[in-house]
Specification:
Blueprint (H helix, E strand, L loop, with lengths): L8 H6 L4 E5 L3 H7 L4 H21 L4 E8 L7 H25 L1 E6 L7 H13 L6 E9 L1 H12 L6 H11 L11 E4 L18 E4 L9 H12 L9 H5 L1
Parallel strand pairs: 1-2, 1-5, 2-4, 3-4, 5-6
The structure holds farnesyl diphosphate (FPP).
C-alpha cells in the first residue's frame, strides 16, 4: 500500500493557531448534583460547546478537537446512548450553522460504520457545508478510540515501514478525518479526573496537559482563555535540553 500524504500543507496553514483537544467530562455528575437526569447534563454540555467554539475562534485556536463519544461509551446503558446519538444529530446541525457563519470547518473523527445511517448522513452534510471554513478547524470525536485507530492504521500498512508523518496521515485516513491530524498542543480535561481515556494518544506525544475540577457544563469562555494563557507560559522542549530551547 502506498502511503502518500493526502492533505496539502495549505490546509494546515489555514488553521495556524494551537491545537486544543478537550475531554468534556462531568455532564452526568453536574446533572445529578442539580437534581436533573443525566441527559439534561449532556444538553447543558452542548450549550457549553457552543460558547467554547465561539471563544476558541476569538482566541486564535487553530484546531479544536472535542471528545464527544468514545468507543467504550457504547457500553453505557442503551437509553443514555440513544439519547446521546439523538443529541449529536441535533447539535451537529445547529453547530454547522454557526460554523458556517464563523468560517469554521467542522469534521467528525472516528469510526462511522457503527453510527446510524441518519447520523452518518448528517455528518456528511455538515462536513460538506462547512468545507470552505478557514478560521478554525473544529473536530468532533465520535465512536473514537486512539488505540483502535492505531491498530487499524498498522494493519493497513501490511508490514510497510513509514515515517511518523505518513503514519499520522494514515491515522487521519482510517478515522475519516478530512484534514490530516496535527499534534495536539494542549489537552484540557474537565470533571476532576486526570487521565487521557484513549483520546488522541499518538497526537498527544508532546501535548501540555491541564486538568480542571469544573464539570463541563460549568466551563466558560474565560476558562478557555485562562487555559490558553497558562499554555503560553509553559516551557515546551520536545526532548531538547533547556539551553537548546532558550537559544
Ligand atoms: C462526558 O460526561 C460527556 C459525554 C459522554 C458526552 C459529551 C457530549 C457533548 C457535550 C455534546 C457534543 C456536541 C456535539 C456538537 C456533537 P459524562 O457523562 O461521562 O459525565 P460524568 O463523568 O459526570 O458521568
Amino acid at each position: 500500500m502506498s502511503i502518500a500524504r493526502h492533505g496539502s500543507s495549505s490546509a494546515h496553514a489555514a488553521f495556524a493557531g494551537p491545537h486544543v483537544a478537550i475531554v468534556m467530562d462531568g455532564n452526568g455528575r453536574w446533572a445529578t448534583a442539580h437534581g436533573l437526569p443525566r441527559p439534561a447534563g449532556h444538553e447543558a454540555g452542548v450549550r457549553t460547546v457552543r460558547e467554547i467554539v465561539e471563544r476558541a475562534v476569538e482566541e486564535g485556536v487553530g484546531t479544536l478537537t472535542l471528545y464527544a463519544f468514545s468507543s467504550d461509551n457504547w457500553k453505557r446503558p442503551s437509553a443514555e446512548v440513544s439519547a446521546l446519538m439523538r443529541l449529536f444529530r441535533r447539535a451537529l446541525v445547529n453547530e454547522a450553522k454557526r460554523c458556517l457563519r464563523n468560517g469554521v470547518r467542522l469534521t467528525v473523527l472516528g469510526r462511522r460504520d457503527r453510527l446510524s445511517s441518519s447520523l452518518r448522513e448528517t455528518i456528511d452534510q455538515v462536513e460538506a457545508v462547512t468545507v470552505a471554513g478557514t478560521r478554525m478547524h473544529l473536530r468532533i470525536a465520535m465512536d473514537y478510540s486512539a488505540r483502535d485507530a492505531m491498530v487499524r492504521a498498522s494493519a493497513a500498512l501490511r508490514g510497510e515501514s513509514v515515517s511518523r508523518e505518513a503514519f499520522t496521515d494514515l491515522l487521519a485516513r482510517v478515522d475519516h478525518d478530512l484534514v490530516p491530524a496535527r499534534d495536539v498542543d494542549l489537552v484540557i480535561r474537565t470533571g476532576g479526573e486526570q487521565r487521557l481515556s484513549d483520546f488522541l494518544l499518538w497526537e498527544c506525544a508532546y501535548a501540555e496537559l491541564l486538568f480542571l475540577d469544573k464539570m463541563w457544563p460549568e466551563f466558560v469562555g474565560d476558562d478557555l482563555a485562562e487555559a490558553l494563557a497558562d499554555f503560553r507560559g509553559r516551557n515546551r522542549r520536545f526532548g531538547l535540553a533547556p539551553e537548546q530551547v532558550a537559544s
